[in-house]
TrEMBL record:
PROSITE patterns: PHYTOENE_DH (PS00982). The keyword ATP-binding does not apply. The gene is crtI. This is Phytoene desaturase. SUPFAM superfamilies: FAD/NAD(P)-binding domain.
């Protein structure tokens, strides 16, 4: 395959990974055409209308700002000129009951003090040691694994060097995140709090590897609020790509990837149109390829993906409502008492959790965690759920019982929400499956369960020449910064293949 600047690249999907790929390639002068089946960019980074209000209904946490600064700089732009970001002083507020509350702060010393007040001096010492290990892991793995084009254990060990190997030796390779946290925290509530980071990857802390503790360091480095909402990130990336010469077409669903003896030839759309291209980047869940959603020719691009290894799905509620009692911050987490049962219900029994953790994003709260809106406020609630949207249609009774448990959990912690069904939008795994086909509603690709899982995610290149992957289902993983990195890796792989030929 020889790619010249006058040849054509199609990006299938305008999620964050696809948009970053488009930006990178358009900045290098390639002809880029993005085809998106929805009417707006963003993929899972979407907005929902509730009456006159618009709410973020996907990712709500903006971290690793430096990744986006690098992306914009590589395209000859500045992040600050396109996006307004406000740092949060409270990373998240956590509650187990009306009397049990704990804030994690952007200020490390304040978090240390808060944990000491909450669980004692030993817990504070454990937190200090935990943060040191998390920082060392991130520093080691960012250049050697996260930004590496093709993940492998041998490659990781080869790139780490002696210092990196010493850092990795401090983490038991076969231990779960939950078990490893026990070395730092005897208080089960703190193990819940830091074990929850595995759910950022759609995984259970009881099966995810200890290496995921590095997420704690990422948040400690800064969490920002995006002025205008998270969906602005997608809009700005789309504008940047178009300003560089890429075209983005909405309402254009790709149903087949066309191949020939030498690799890809183009795509076919739902309305029957065929568009030729010399390279294609698929910004969709890899399961869409392996399940045949892009045609039989594209199924051979990857080894089959096991549906039993899917990540978490969710039930989400977007609502406008008045609240009383609990002093909400921007990000809030309400824990149950039996953490293990939540993941046994989801991954073991395939049912909605009986005692699930509830995340609440209060989108009208300030960055300092203070202040109460005058009147109704915009709330986004998320409960982890099994990824069975293609196999199980959650009935009205099941959903109603689950909803009652969710709002009872909030009330147990002191938060009363005066909800109105007319001002609330519910999304289930069935709807997520419709939006993101072949996933069952899984929102993070394959679950990161077991130490090998991080090395088994599909990489940028596929078995078909000229066909590349980007998105949260590919390496390096789920989350907005990781999806952005995947977009860069896809562009780099494509350009490297161009140079090599």
């Amino acid at each position: 395959m020889v790619l010249r600047r006058d040849q054509r690249v199609i990006v299938v999907g305008a999620g964050v990974g696809g948009l970053v790929t488009a930006v990178q390639l358009a900045a290098r002068g390639l002809q880029v055409r993005v085809l998106e089946r929805a009417e707006t960019p963003g993929g899972k980074m979407r907005e929902v209308a509730v009456g006159p209000h618009r709410l973020d209904a996907g990712p709500t946490v903006f971290t690793m700002r430096w990744i986006f600064e690098e992306i914009f700089e590589a395209a000859g732009a500045q992040l600050e000129a396109h996006l307004s970001l406000e740092p949060l002083s409270i990373i998240a507020r956590h509650a187990w009951s009306e009397q049990e509350r704990l804030d994690l702060h952007a200020d490390y010393e304040r978090s240390l003090e808060a944990i000491g007040d909450f669980a004692g001096a030993e817990a504070a010492r454990g937190y200090r040691a935990f943060c040191k290990q998390a920082r060392a892991l991130y520093t080691t793995l960012d250049p050697t694994f996260i930004r590496a084009s093709r993940p492998s254990l041998l490659g990781l060990l080869g790139r780490c060097g002696l210092k990196g190997l010493i850092t990795l030796s401090g983490v038991q390779p076969y231990a779960s995140l939950w078990d490893s946290l026990g070395a730092y925290f005897k208080d089960a509530r703190l193990r819940q709090l830091f074990g929850r980071y595995s759910t950022y990857c759609g995984s259970s802390p009881f099966m995810a590897p200890a290496i995921l503790m590095l997420i704690a360091h990422v948040e400690q480095e800064g969490v920002w609020s995006v002025v205008g909402g998270m969906h602005r990130v997608a809009l700005v990336l789309a504008q940047l790509a178009e300003g560089l010469g890429a075209t983005i077409e909405y309402g254009r669903e790709v149903t087949q990837i066309l191949t020939g003896p030498n690799g890809v030839r183009g795509v076919q759309l739902a309305e029957g149109d065929r568009i030729e291209a010399e390279a294609i980047v698929v910004n969709a869940d890899p399961a869409a390829l392996t399940s045949g959603r892009f045609g039989a020719e594209a199924q051979r691009a990857l080894p089959p993906l096991d549906p039993e290894r899917r990540s978490l799905s969710a039930l989400t509620w977007c609502l406008s409502a008045e609240t009383q009692g609990f002093p909400l911050a921007r990000h809030n987490v309400f824990f149950g008492r039996d953490y293990a049962s939540e993941f046994e219900d989801i991954f073991g029994r395939g049912r909605l959790p009986r005692d699930g953790t509830v995340y609440v994003c209060a989108q009208d709260r300030g960055t300092d965690g203070n202040g109460t809106p005058d009147g109704p406020e915009r709330l986004f609630l998320l409960l982890n759920a099994p990824p069975r949207g293609d196999r199980h249609d959650f009935d009205a009774v099941e959903i109603e019982q689950c909803e009652q448990r969710v709002f009872s959990r909030l009330e147990h912690c002191g938060l009363r929400v005066r909800r109105d069904p007319e001002r609330m939008v519910l999304t289930t795994p069935v709807e997520f499956e419709r939006r993101f086909p072949a996933t069952g509603g899984a929102l993070y690709g394959q679950a990161t369960h077991g130490w090998r899982a991080s090395f088994s995610r599909p990489a940028s290149r596929t078995r078909i020449p000229g066909l590349y992957l980007a998105g949260g289902g590919t390496h390096p993983g789920a989350g907005i910064p990781m999806a952005a990195i995947s977009g860069r890796l896809a562009a780099e792989a494509l350009l490297a293949d161009q140079r090599s030929t």
